[in-house]
């Protein structure tokens, strides 16, 4: 039942249950014969050795696996890799571009000490990158007045908390996570 | 998870053909519920027919003034759409009250309607569940059922439908467009989901192989004051214990139109027709709202541990109707 028991790449799965799939991950194209059962999270971690995205609940409830697909944040544990064929994926490893300077959110998380064990942090950061872009694009949240004239939504603490509610932190670093996100949007 | 074939459909006809030629197939949209159920062993499709590349991701205004929402429009995009926010704020509010930012970016309009109950007995293959395995019994009836139905349930199933969006669609008199090899048909959103009766394994009126292609938001309720309110165990990212969507139009001091639907109370969004009838032509006062909602909720048959839902739903509905009446006065 758990995907951790499944063979890598789909070795063992008959050809009818595998498909050639091309993904651009952090700017680099990869073509693999993917077992249809493989979710994007497992492909990233097991096949491409990108272990930044974490497996927490594996059911879309904790957000530790959050990555950006075509610029939008999603739960990579619920996206079948074969269905993402042709997509552009950005993981926490790819946020800083050339990798020389950390992304402003990565720096803010360090400066604000916005984590304890760090397990949820890559998901929190990818989620925050997506959430900031959504607010700039005028996407409302549960705490936005949807009847107001559409436009970029200013992110106060209440908005940040609501927009990041899909990312759990069992250490309870929430106040500092909100601080870090506030630092970046200011 | 069992191995399965994967077919990427290039057209509606191709999707329907692939469904017909793969017994045990399922259509794949955003996958946020289906893939989860496959991990749990609740769903074991022989093939997934990926329909996400079909051109059904637009929101267009039709000549009759209705708004046609393609089945592949993502929940976050639908909630943010300027025309949706302007015409039916209840729909935006309902979408934004559901799931998380990540899930709303992936989940589609069609898939949201077709999502399955979150009843823990349904999701646990070691437990009896008539919805998952007809004839095996209902574990929730005498088990853990605090989150379950108080209206329209049967001895075979006490599950609730988890969608927030569908509750707003029911109140707004939306329609669901279905495509099948036999043709295209439209079903009122309020009648899209079924009550469990003797066949809780059937959530909706969708026939095998039919595909949701669009949701139509009618011109008639566009621009009327509408709102959605949801009560849950935590402030965000939780399913409804009870919720209400309401559309209210007041003319010359009396209610000219009322559309009310409850979420979290039944196997489908519960359109409160009795309450609506009681309100028509009546002055929109708090006591009128209380009386109307009580007429509706008289039918409630709570289970051992969920009687709290009745006063909770009553409070939500009276509050939302009161606010809409005040908004209408100001407008």
Automatic annotation (TrEMBL), chain A:
GO terms assigned for molecular function: 2 iron, 2 sulfur cluster binding; metal ion binding; oxidoreductase activity, acting on the aldehyde or oxo group of donors
Source species of the chain: Streptomyces phaeoluteigriseus
Disordered: region residues: 1-28
UniProt keywords, alphabetically: 2Fe-2S, Iron, Iron-sulfur, Metal-binding, Oxidoreductase
Xref: Pfam families: Fer2 (PF00111), Fer2_2 (PF01799)
2Fe-2S ferredoxin-type domain sequence ranges: 19-95
Pathway(s) per entry: Alkaloid degradation; nicotine degradation
Record-given protein name: 2Fe-2S iron-sulfur cluster-binding protein
Annotated InterPro entries: 2Fe-2S-bd, 2Fe-2S-bd_dom_sf, 2Fe-2S_ferredoxin-like_sf, 2Fe-2S_ferredoxin-type, 2Fe2S_fd_BS, Aldehyde_Oxdr_Iron-Sulfur, Beta-grasp_dom_sf
Automatic annotation (TrEMBL), chain B:
Stored SMART domains: CO_deh_flav_C
Domain of life of the source: Bacteria
SUPFAM superfamilies given in the database record: CO dehydrogenase flavoprotein C-terminal domain-like, FAD-binding/transporter-associated domain-like
Keyword terms of this UniProt record: Oxidoreductase
Gene Ontology MF terms in the entry: FAD binding; oxidoreductase activity
A Pfam family of this chain: CO_deh_flav_C
Chain ranges of the FAD-binding PCMH-type domain: 1-222
Keyword Transcription regulation: no
Protein name: Molybdopterin dehydrogenase
Taxon lineage: Bacteria, Bacillati, Actinomycetota, Actinomycetes, Kitasatosporales
């Amino acid at each position: 039942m758990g995907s951790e028991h499944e063979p890598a790449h789909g070795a063992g799965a008959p050809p009818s249950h595998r498909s050639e799939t091309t993904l651009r991950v952090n700017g680099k194209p990869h073509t693999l014969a993917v077992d249809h059962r493989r979710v994007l999270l497992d492909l990233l971690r097991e096949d491409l050795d990108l272990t930044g995205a974490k497996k927490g609940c594996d059911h879309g409830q904790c957000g530790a696996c959050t990555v950006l697909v075509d610029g939008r944040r999603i739960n990579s544990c619920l996206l079948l890799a074969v269905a993402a064929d042709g997509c552009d994926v950005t993981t926490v490893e790819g946020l800083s571009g050339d990798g020389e300077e950390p992304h402003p959110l990565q720096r803010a998380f360090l400066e604000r000490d916005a984590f304890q064990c760090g397990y949820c942090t890559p998901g929190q950061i990818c989620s925050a990158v997506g959430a900031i872009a959504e607010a700039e694009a005028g996407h409302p949240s549960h705490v936005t007045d949807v009847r107001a004239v559409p436009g970029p939504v200013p992110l106060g603490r209440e908005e940040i908390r609501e927009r990041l509610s899909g990312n759990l932190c069992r250490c309870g670093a929430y106040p500092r996570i909100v601080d870090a996100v506030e630092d970046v949007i200011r | 998870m069992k191995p399965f074939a994967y077919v990427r459909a290039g057209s509606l006809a191709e999707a329907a053909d692939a469904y017909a030629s793969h017994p045990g197939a399922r259509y794949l949209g955003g996958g946020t519920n289906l893939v989860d159920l496959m991990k749990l062993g609740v769903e074991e499709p022989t093939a997934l027919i990926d329909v996400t590349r079909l051109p059904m991701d637009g929101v267009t205004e039709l000549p009759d003034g209705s708004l046609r929402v393609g089945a592949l429009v993502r929940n976050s995009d639908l909630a943010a759409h300027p025309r949706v926010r302007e015409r039916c704020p209840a729909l935006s509010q309902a979408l934004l009250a559901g799931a998380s930012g990540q899930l709303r970016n992936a989940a589609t309009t069609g898939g949201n309607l077709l999502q399955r109950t979150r009843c823990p007995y349904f999701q646990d293959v070691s437990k009896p569940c008539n919805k998952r395995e007809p004839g095996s019994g209902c574990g929730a009836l005498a088990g853990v059922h605090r989150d379950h139905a108080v209206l329209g349930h049967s001895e075979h199933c006490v599950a609730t439908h988890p969608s927030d969006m569908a509750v707003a669609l029911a109140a707004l008199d939306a329609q669901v467009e279905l495509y099948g090899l036999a043709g295209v048909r439209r079903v009122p959103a309020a009648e899209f989901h079924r009550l469990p009766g003797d066949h809780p394994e059937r959530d909706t009126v969708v026939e095998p192989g039919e595909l949701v292609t669009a949701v139509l938001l009618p011109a008639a309720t566009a621009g009327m004051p509408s709102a959605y309110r949801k009560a849950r165990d935590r402030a965000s990212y939780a399913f409804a214990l009870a919720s209400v969507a309401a559309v209210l139009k007041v003319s010359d001091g009396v209610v000219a139109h009322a559309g009310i639907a409850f979420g979290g109370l039944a196997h489908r969004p519960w359109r409160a027709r009795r309450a609506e009838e009681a309100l028509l032509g009546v002055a929109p006062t708090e006591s009128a709202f209380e009386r109307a909602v009580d007429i509706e909720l008289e039918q409630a048959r709570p289970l051992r541990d969920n009687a709290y839902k009745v006063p909770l739903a009553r409070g939500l509905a009276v509050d939302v109707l009161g606010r809409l009446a005040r908004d209408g006065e100001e407008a």
